Amino acid sequence: MTNQPPHAANRLERILAYMVAGVVGLSILAFLAVILGTAAGAGADNGFGQGVWPAVLALPLFGLPLGFVLIIILMVMSGMRRTREARQNKE
Fold first, then answer.
1. Which of 29, 23, 32 is nearest to 64 (CA)?
2. Which of 7, 72, 82, 85 has its CA 20 to 30 A from that of 34?
3. Contacts of 23 (CB under 8 A, 6+ apart)
4. Please, is 90 exposed, middle or buried when counting C-beta atoms within 10 Å of its C-beta (0-12, 13-18, 19+)?
5. pTM as predicted
6. What domain of life does the native source organism fall in (predicted)?
């Protein structure tokens, strides 16, 4: 048996799931902001190169791959937990 209570693994999985939702959601909002900014004419005369626009443009470039990696980690952790629980129930 492990020394951790059974809720510790679920808490970590929940935290990872919220991180995935937050990072991917924020990246999608940034992507939509770029689309709306382009439609509103903010990109004219190098408008995307000043203010907060460089960060908004970079957020989906880093956020979406990070979200993908977090999803993979979450799936591996969930699979390991289920395998461990199945072994314990078998014994």
1. 23
2. 72
3. 63, 66, 67, 70
4. exposed
5. 0.78
6. Bacteria
Amino acid at 82: R
Name the token pair of 35: 């689309």
* Tokens (6 digits) for 45: 């005369």
Separation between Cα atoms, residue 24 and residue 70, nearest integer Å: 10
Q: Token pair of 32, please?
A: 């939509």
> 27, 34, 29: which is closest to 63 by C-alpha?
27
27-75 residue pLDDT tens: 999 999 999 999 988 878 888 888 899 999 999 999 999 999 999 999 9
Tokens 């629980």, residue located:
85
What are the tokens at 81? 């937990």
